[in-house]
Design goal:
Largest sheet of chain C: 6 strands, mixed
Oligomer: heterotrimer
Helix content of chain B: over 70%
Chains: A mainly alpha (about 375), B mainly alpha (about 350), C alpha/beta (about 500)
Largest sheet of chain B: 2 strands, antiparallel
Shape of chain B: globular
Radius of gyration of chain C: 24 Å
Helix content of chain C: 25-40%
Structural class of chain C: alpha/beta
Strand order of the largest sheet of chain B: 1-4
Largest interface: B-C, 42 and 53 residues
Number of strands of chain C: 19
Number of helices of chain B: 14
Distance between the termini of chain B: 7 Å
Chain lengths: ~375, ~350, ~500
């Protein structure tokens, strides 16, 4: 009997170049996209990256420039993308109602601070109370979505289609279809600048949210549980987890994220337009998750990929605006970029590219074996 | 094993009803219940046949879109670009008629051509490059939306006479007319689009029920790995489903255009969601493998009947319509989920 | 091509990233023979079949089929079907949403239009002739797994094929159905069809097969006429080493003292669940290994699921060490020190995309709680320890568990429960679908654990496995516990008699 060699031969060999290993990395696509955008802007117009100090409408000196604008405007998207990643991982689907529930959060917060009036010049209730109410309300809507998904086993995109359809109408209903305006400057601190600080506040809020999630993922088992439930709910249950509860939890977490994002958005202007606020943001948020290398079918996730993805999307938007693409035509350009990115990151395309190299290696192995 | 044998006869009658037929039955029942109660308790407009026909007139496009959506959903995919494609077709057709001297024929070509182009690209990406259909059609939707405004930002009203003649053609339905207050007889009518839409429903029904391709859609949606092992070309099937869906979106666009007679960025807005909602109410599962265009037809009708009921109840603020649609969707989802869950757990006991 | 051969595979090679799955494998199938393809898990049997049927593209070698000049081109299952190869796969590969009849005809019917009436009557005839208890119009998903498997067989048999491949078709069938299948196979053999039969059951191989090809580690070991290869030799060829006498493992390790003092580790009275089992009583002592036996579907899995709280418990009491406890969900059972290795490894056991390490620490982590994550270093230490201890073959602890072979996946799940240091371990079919070497290792492990005082309940379809490990057997029939055997009564015949219901004890 001839001794049989160990059939497992590691493909990852010491000679493998750094570049090849890089390509296999999950974060390769968002980083490559970001690099591409940066290079494009550097070549086309390096002044894109200029950061200057300007006076804002209140006469305070603040930082200004495209980079600041990307970081600032991506805030809502980043916060949503974090929640969306968890929802995607646990339930294998996406919540398409986040834009609509942001409208609800904004509506609730404005109604609270305006005390139900059409406009108010001072805060009628403490800001934190208003925001807290907003958080509770959207967390409840998140729980509603989560219940449909977890306990009634309805596919997430269909379940959230309900709130997607009704959300903006409910937002209008909350304020009886009036458009309340909040004129108190302190209300706008969260969406613009804090007095004396030249960096837009949303950047701080986003950093804070990211920090919170970093801590949560580090000091709890949320990450492992969510992934486990998303990959195989049956075995998770037999290992003592409660898959339904965990799915529900991720939707509630997303609900909280939505409230924070909604607060930032209404606090930018102090007003709301129910049908336009955060329009299409659900699409961007889902895109951010996908761009970050996360499978939209759930399971394993990388939250930092989604965050990066969100910034890339905002970077793209800002770049397009700079080249005076009209905002209505923007989606067409975005679509082309999206398709390019997903085609490049499609497993089929990647494995075909990798397959060419792999095939050569396999042939060598076969020769050796003979 | 012996338990299964002894159990089978008792449960057979219940089991003969496949998921598709069960959900279809629920949908048809709900539609008739809705409409009958509207006639009984609201009377008024609902007693007139024209009211019913107007639901058809206003939704010919949505019927076609929803059927396409159902087909993609049966294969386990989704296409959220259909609303935007409708909008693009309308705008392109309007510009063609008004600024380039087009005719009905060119409108037809433009509509189907745009649909086909979207279908080919989206189908290829989904089926052959295995990219998630949601993302692909999301990009498709963005692209169509953007292109619509690139074609024209301003609404375009059509004045082409040949076109208007077709648009205003009323096909009279004998025996359903009614007398107005002055005692004049007003015949009931449907628009040209309705005939096309109904014809499409019948053709698609036959396609799904009797052709090899149609059955492949169900097999692929049921379990695409199994379908592959059973000798079905899964990729081609998925590809064709997307091509068919986008082609129907193009046709839907033409019908929409035929109904409103103008190109506008707002045309077809939100129709992808209406189409998904109609399909679901009509008993199509987003998980694939279960559904029927006949159900989808009733789904569209139910959805719009309830909208009318709500507005005639006096809830005519804009938001009520959306909230009712959502509530109805919610109700149906829960019914479906409960029915199917119970049925499946019922089946499980015999499984061991 | 050799004379009389219907199928010839020469020098087949197949590589997966990191693994040489098949290397230069030859295989010849003659007309009118039943040819067993044997090998341990991961030996390459399923890969060879998937290469042959076009599910995987091959990386080298050629396939010749009778009546085709030159190498056959098989790029997809459709091509294989057209070439006269029909296949029944290990997993059910039918569509649950379609009717039984459609599942039998889809993908191979001629013409673009479906004739439902003709199809249903044709299917009805075949179902009847094979004695399959299903109606042609019934939705497949509502049939039991065994019936679904029979439908898959019916489909394959009905095709006018030259080559029929049966990849472990018998694992979900009961004895009667297996016999029906064998009659069918012999019938086809007479008609000149070449049959490739893959199975883990040695008895079945010796019952129907004419020839055996053995694979090991992706390479061909040899082709033998069945008379020339007695069982023991076959096993040693599959393992690549002489087998230590399996019957002796209990003698070698036996004599584990079952402590008779004090209360039993677990005692259940009148336990029943929503899975439809009749109330049963059960108890196990420290260091005891007992088992549930009975035919498939007799309720043996449901019993242990009820004990573990995996199904909804609808009645009865459970005492652990004499104290009454409430077990409503798996976590309750885990907190009491119970571990459960489920029957369905893929569906209920592994978490496919997670790494071996995460799979091993999962249950331990859940018991530690949401706010006390196991540190990375600690997790690595645990994983490495068990990978070494149980000899789990994996590229690294970071490899996704789904890329491991079945036996190694099962070892990971065992490791998962061993890590929780259970008082009482339930093993439901831990040896199904895994290779003989690992089977013995797992049985030994159970006995070794018992020696150290862990109690265990063992369920297996193979009675001699149960006899080797268990000191007491509870016999199930029709979802009811019908007898308990121990000591002298633990013999194959006695168990069979009790299962069959000849005498009630």
């Amino acid at each position: 009997m001839t001794p049989v060699k160990n059939p497992e031969i590691k493909v990852k060999q010491p000679g493998e170049s750094f570049f090849k290993r890089l390509v296999r990395q999950q974060l390769f696509i968002p980083f490559a996209a970001l690099a591409l955008l940066v290079v494009f802007n550097l070549i086309a117009d390096p002044s894109f990256f200029a950061v200057t100090i300007k006076e804002n409408s209140l006469g305070n000196p603040v930082l200004s420039g495209n980079i600041i604008s990307v970081l600032d405007n991506a805030s809502e998207l980043v916060i949503l993308a974090i929640g969306m990643t968890l929802v995607t991982a646990s339930s294998g689907g996406q919540d398409i109602s986040v834009g609509a529930t942001m409208a609800i959060a904004g509506s609730v917060i404005l109604r609270m601070v305006c005390g139900g009036q059409v406009s108010a010049d001072t805060l009628q209730v403490p800001l934190f109370l208003a925001v807290l109410t907003g958080i509770v309300v959207t967390a409840l809507f998140g729980a509603f979505n989560g219940t449909l998904v977890a306990y009634f086993k309805i596919q997430p995109m269909v379940a959230t289609l309900i709130m997607f359809t009704a959300g903006r109408s409910i937002a209008a209903w909350i304020n009886n279809n009036q458009l309340p305006i909040m004129n108190d400057i302190s209300f706008k601190y969260a969406g613009t600048f804090l007095p004396g600080i030249p960096v837009p506040t949303p950047i701080f809020i986003t950093a804070f949210v990211i920090l919170v999630f970093w801590l949560v993922l580090k000091f709890t088992t949320l990450g492992l549980y969510t992934q486990s439930v998303g990959i195989n709910a049956n075995s998770s249950r037999l290992n003592g987890l409660d898959p339904q509860m965990i799915k529900l939890l991720t939707y509630v977490i997303l609900g909280v994220c939505v409230a924070v994002a909604g607060f930032i958005r209404v606090s930018r202007s102090g007003s709301i337009n129910y049908s336009r606020i955060a329009e299409n943001i659900e699409m961007d948020a889902i895109l951010a998750v996908a761009l970050g290398g996360n499978a939209l079918s759930g399971g394993k996730f990388n939250i930092y990929g989604s965050i990066l993805g969100a910034y890339v999307i905002q970077f793209l938007t800002t770049t397009l605006y700079k080249y005076e693409v009209p905002s209505t035509a923007l989606p067409a350009y975005k679509a082309v970029v999206v398709i390019l990115l997903v085609v490049l990151s499609a497993p089929v395309v990647r494995s075909k590219m990798a397959g060419l190299r792999f095939r050569a290696k396999a042939d060598n192995l076969a020769k050796e074996a003979k | 094993m012996t338990t299964t044998v002894s159990k089978a006869p008792r449960l057979r009658a219940h089991r003969e009803l496949s998921d598709t037929n069960l959900l279809l039955a629920i949908t048809v029942l709900v539609f008739f219940a809705l409409y009958l109660s509207a006639i009984l308790f609201l009377g008024g407009g609902f007693t007139k046949p024209q009211n019913f026909l107007n639901i058809l007139n206003n939704n010919a496009s949505l019927i076609v879109l929803s059927c396409g959506m159902s087909i993609v959903m049966i294969t386990g995919g989704i296409d959220i670009s259909v609303g935007a494609v409708t909008s693009l077709v309308c705008m392109a057709s309007a510009v063609n008629l008004e600024q380039q001297g087009g005719s009905i024929l060119t409108v037809l070509l433009i509509g189907l051509g745009i649909g086909l182009a979207f279908g080919l690209v989206q189908g290829y990406l989904v089926a052959y490059l295995e990219i998630q259909p949601f993302i692909v059609s999301l990009a498709g939707m963005f692209f169509a939306k953007g292109m619509t405004t690139i074609v024209s930002k301003e609404p375009v009203r059509v004045t082409n006479e040949g076109f208007l003649a077709v648009k205003d053609t009323r096909i009279l339905v004998p025996g359903l007319g009614s007398n107005n207050k002055l005692g004049q007889y007003i015949p009931a009518y449907v628009e040209v689009g309705v005939v096309i839409a109904l014809l499409s429903v019948v053709l698609l029904f036959c396609l799904l029920r009797w052709t090899k391709l149609g059955r492949s859609f169900y097999a692929v949606g049921g379990n695409n790995q199994s379908a592959n092992m059973l000798g079905i070309n899964v990729r081609r099937t998925k590809f064709l489903a997307h091509v068919l869906c986008s082609l129907l979106a193009g046709l839907g666009g033409i019908l929409y255009f035929l109904h409103v007679g103008s190109g506008d960025v707002a045309n077809g807005a939100g129709d992808e969601m209406n189409a998904i909602a109609s399909s679901i109410i009509g008993g199509t599962l987003l998980t694939g493998g279960v559904g029927n265009v006949a159900g989808t037809f009733f789904g569209v009708m139910s959805l719009n009947t309830i909208k009318r009921i709500v507005s005639s109840l006096g809830f005519d603020e804009a938001w009520w319509s959306n909230i009712t649609v959502a509530a109805m969707l919610c109700l149906f989802l829960v019914i479906q989920s409960v029915v199917l869950l119970r049925k499946n757990t019922g089946g499980k006991e015999g499984k061991e | 091509m050799q004379k009389g051969a219907v199928l010839e595979m020469r020098g087949i090679c197949k590589y997966f990233p990191g693994v040489r799955a098949l290397q230069d494998v030859d295989f010849t199938l003659r007309k009118g023979e039943i040819h067993a393809l044997m090998g341990e898990n991961g030996a390459g049997k399923s890969t060879l079949i998937k290469v042959l049927t076009g599910v995987y593209p091959k990386d080298g070698g050629e396939v010749r089929i009778e009546g085709v000049n030159g190498p056959a081109v098989i790029r997809s299952p459709q091509d294989a079907q057209n070439a006269g190869i029909s296949t029944v796969y290990q997993e059910i590969t039918l569509c649950p949403n379609l009717s039984v009849a459609e599942n039998m005809y889809i993908g191979r019917a001629k013409g673009a239009v479906t004739n439902w009436r003709k199809m249903n009557s044709g299917a009805g005839k075949i179902l009847e002739s094979l004695g399959i208890p299903a109606s042609p119009t019934q939705q497949l998903g509502t049939c039991s797994i065994a019936v679904q498997q029979m439908v898959a067989i019916a489909r394959a048999v009905d095709m006018e094929c030259k080559v029929l491949i049966l990849d472990e078709p018998t694992s979900s069938l009961d004895e009667q159905e297996v016999q029906k299948l064998f009659v069918l196979m012999r019938d086809l053999r007479k008609k000149g069809v070449g049959i490739i039969f893959v199975t883990h059951f040695l008895e079945q191989v010796y019952e129907v097969c004419d020839r055996i090809t053995v694979l090991r580690d992706g390479q061909l070991v040899g082709e033998y006429v069945i008379e020339d290869l007695p069982r023991v030799k076959l096993v040693s060829k599959m393992l690549g080493k002489e087998l230590d006498d399996m019957a002796d493992i209990k003698g070698e390790l036996g004599g584990a003292a079952i402590s008779q003092e004090g209360a039993p580790v677990l005692e259940a009275q009148g336990l029943c669940s929503n899975a439809g089992i009749k109330p049963f009583n059960f108890s196990i002592r420290k260091g005891e290994v007992n088992g549930f036996t009975g035919l498939l579907g007799s309720g043996r899995s449901e019993c242990v699921r009820a004990i573990f709280g995996a199904d909804r418990v609808t009645g009865g009491t459970v005492k652990m060490d004499g104290k009454e406890v409430k077990i409503k969900k798996p976590l309750d059972a885990m907190k009491q020190g119970i571990g459960y290795l489920p029957e369905d490894r893929k569906g209920d056991g592994i978490v496919g995309d997670l790494s071996v390490r995460e799979n091993i620490i999962l249950a331990y982590q859940v018991m530690k709680g949401f706010f006390h994550p196991v540190s990375r270093a600690q997790a690595e230490a645990f994983a490495d320890n068990y990978i070494q201890l149980l000899e789990i073959k994996t590229a690294s602890a970071d490899t996704p568990i789904k890329s491991l072979s079945g036996g190694n996946q099962q070892k990971c799940i065992l490791a998962r429960w061993l890590l929780t240091d259970p008082k009482y371990l339930i093993l439901d079919e831990p040896t199904r679908g895994i290779d003989i070497g690992t089977k013995i290792e797992i049985q030994k492990l159970v006995l070794r654990l018992a020696e150290k005082g862990t109690s265990a309940t063992f369920i297996s379809s193979e009675i001699d496995e149960m006899l080797r490990t268990c000191s007491r057997l509870i016999v199930m029939r029709d979802r009811k516990a019908v007898g308990e055997l121990s000591g002298e009564d633990l013999t194959q015949t006695k168990i069979m008699a009790t299962i069959a219901g000849g005498e009630e004890s």
